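does this look right to u?? glutamic acid version
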Amino acid sequence: MTVKTRFAPSPTGYLHIGGARTALYSWLYARKKGGVFALRVEDTDLERSTEESVQAILEGMEWLGLNYDEGPIFQTHRFDRYAEVIQQLMDEGNAYHCYCSRDELDEMREQQRANKQKPRYDGRCRGRTEVPEGVDPVIRFKNPLEGDVVIKDVVKGDIVINNRELDDLIIARSDGTPTYNLTVVVDDIDMGMTHVIRGDDHINNTPRQINIMQALGAEIPAFAHVPMILGDDGKRLSKRHGAVGVMQYRDEGYLPEALLNYLIRLGWSHGDQEVFSREEMLEFFELEDIHGAASAFNTEKLNWMNQQYLKSLPGDVIAGHLQWHLENQSLDISNGPAINDVIDAQRDRAKGLVDLVGTSRYFYEDFESYDEKAMGKQFKPGVDAILQALHDKFEALADWNPEVIQQAINATCDDLELKLGKVGPPLRLAVAGTPMSPGLDITLNLVGKERTLQRLAKAIETIKAIA
Ligand code: GLU
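got this back:
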């Protein structure tokens, strides 16, 4: 059996964190089994679906690297096929026209409530013989009246629902358009899905879908209903918790590798391991190990994960992700050190990619002002002489590399009989404009000799002007 899974978002908003996790699990499972992963856009709700959402979903999938073998398949392109299956269900006696008016249905439900019964459609049109005039009927599926439906759920175990709990679902509206449960069933059958992995907010639909599948003589796929993601306050994750489209995570400086690793762990585990390479994800991921209970989103842990990946990913991969941020923050890196060298110097300290670009500007551009607090502390009368001594030592160097830079700094300390603690901080502020930078030898090496000398000269003037 070739495993086939799908991700089936409705394009009514961004690709959010819960959707991304479902997509990841479906993708992983197909890839792990050497199967097929399909993307299906469930866009039949014409009022709520937008082209913008479709684009956001495609962009999110691409950014996360969740590539698909089939699709995107748009449900709106398949209306003819749905009509065909609805007709088949009618022809085979598994569906019927329902002429009940809204008033009739309201009255029926009210009575059921009054009798302390669960409101449900009572199937009164199943045997209707006379057809009221001028009413466009809906079509309902004839749900079995007896017996149980069993959902064989890989995550939650077997779930048994008695058919008396279900009623006859509308599968076509009065204008003939198919409803959600019908389209999902037709697609999952036609596309040959072996595993349906989706959010457990769909679990109430599943027994109805299984019944329709059975009526169509189709094989029932395995189901894995993935619990919801909660905010750290235990409530369902929403915008309030910062639950936004995945592209916003890019904008905020997260690496897709880190987000994926965070998401796989949010609802699945393999011992105590937190960081998984893609190979390890593929090796260890099993649907059975998806947690049965909801998990809470934790931004701190995501930040931690991002830092792990900043430290460990190959420089070229980080450089690739950095491109967007360089453009977004308008940092031109054509005049300065190789970006991979800057990444290596900064990766252990950076909070994320936004921070990495923000704190690397001085490698490429001169700055207009100094960190104010540091300036008050470091640029005191007399410090200009220290910076002048450093300037002269650097100027005389034939080579420019971290080793000779460090030697020159040490020699200056010796000459002036000062500790490094007196010389280093004003030097750093003069060259980087901030009191935070990698080691001075590395920083100065990357800034370059010419720029270092210019910046020292400028700092000397600045100090003289203060005095
Ligand atoms: N379109 C549904 C949603 O976005 C998913 C349906 C499914 O996976 O079966 O929630």
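Residues 366-466 form a domain with the Arc Repressor Mutant, subunit A fold (CATH 1.10.10.350). idk if thats expected tbh
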